[in-house]
Design a protein that fits this description.
Layout (H helix, E strand, L loop, with lengths): L4 H17 L5 H15 L2 E2 L7 H4 L24 E4 L2 E4 L4 H12 L4 E5 L12 E5 L12 H15 L6 E2 L1 H9 L13 H17 L5 E2 L8 H18 L6 E6 L2 E9 L7 E7 L4 E8 L4 E4 L3 E2 L1 H4 L4
Parallel strand pairs: 6-7
Antiparallel strand pairs: 1-2, 2-3, 3-5, 4-5, 8-9, 9-10, 10-11, 11-12, 11-13
Helix pairs in contact: 1-2, 5-7, 6-7
Length: 311
């Protein structure tokens, strides 16, 4: 489904307002506070892209990959947190914990924190607002393109020294776009910025900067195609099973497939099936129901060119 930023933003903001105000004695007053935060910090979100200053500014081990607020020592004491494009609000119950958080954040360049006088989440909570002051927003509410691209490139280059494989866009686009997201845009970056990020990543990958390219996600294929690939492999495995050996191999379209099957409940109602090709080159797992001749499967993982042989 196409990612429609205005619709998604409205849903995220509504959910944030409800979460932060539903338990207050004065929910109307709380809603006004959250609306002010949305104006200041941008739309409510679910998770930051790895390059966002909220994640990249606090000190950390240079080899440590950080993908969430909870992994960062500077933010110790978070409780009941809602994230926005420019920062977040968190609502610890301890005034001491809130003050420690404000002090820790304000010691980090490019970040600022403050206590809120008004309650959020609970009348007993002590809300703290944390913002990345150098994050500027475009008219559409996303981060200014040149800044987002610069931060993305800087983080990618810094991780190259310790990289063992190059991850494809489809494997790590959530880390690059943030959550929620579409195929190349999110509430953090618009389609223009997202498209350039993909081109930059693919150029880095093709250069060999990160090592050999690792393919695993097949999200570039439609759900219908992913289901067809899984069904083809699972159905062929079931057809070739002698109902004795739990593991065996079979040939399909020029590939040697390794299959593992078992009668899940030992009543011939459900067969658990897994099929693998090569060393994680392609894998699929799911269930076959003999009585209905029905297959359900988890999305296959692996290399696109190999997977497409089974369409």
């Amino acid at each position: 489904m196409e990612f429609r930023s205005p619709t998604v933003a409205a849903q995220q903001n509504a959910a944030a307002i409800t979460y932060l105000t539903k338990s207050l004695r004065d929910p109307a007053g709380g809603r006004a506070v959250v609306q002010q935060l949305i104006e200041e910090l941008g739309n409510a979100t679910e998770g930051y892209p790895d390059w966002h200053p909220i994640l990249s500014s606090p000190p950390r081990d240079s080899s440590q990959h950080v993908s969430s607020l909870q992994e960062i020592k500077t933010y110790k004491g978070l409780d009941h947190t809602i994230e926005f494009v420019r920062g977040f609000v968190t609502c610890p119950y301890s005034a001491e914990a809130a003050d420690r958080l404000v002090s820790a954040v304000n010691s980090v360049p490019n970040l600022e924190a403050r206590r809120l006088a008004e309650p959020l989440y609970s009348d007993r909570a002590c809300p703290v607002v944390v913002a990345a002051w150098d994050v500027e927003l475009e008219a559409d509410g996303t981060i200014r393109s040149r800044d987002a691209l610069r931060w993305f490139i800087a983080l990618s280059a810094s991780e190259a020294a310790d990289a063992r494989v190059a991850e494809t866009w489809w494997n790590i686009r959530t880390n690059i776009l943030g959550r929620p997201h579409g195929s190349r845009s999110s509430l953090f970056v618009n389609q223009h910025t997202g498209a350039h990020m993909r081109k930059i990543l693919e150029a880095m990958n093709e250069s060999g900067l990160f090592g050999p390219i690792k393919e695993s996600s097949l999200d570039m294929l439609s759900q219908k195609k992913r289901a067809a690939i899984g069904e083809t492999l699972i159905r062929t495995a079931v057809t070739n099973w002698d109902r004795r050996a739990p593991s065996f191999t079979f040939e399909l379209r020029g590939e040697t497939c390794k299959a593992s099957l078992r009668d899940t409940w030992e009543d011939n109602e459900e067969l658990s099936v897994r099929v693998e090709i090569g060393d994680h080159d392609l894998s699929v797992s799911g269930f076959y129901y003999p009585a209905k001749d029905k297959i359900t499967n988890i999305d296959p993982q692996g290399k696109r060119k190999l997977a497409e042989k089974f369409l």
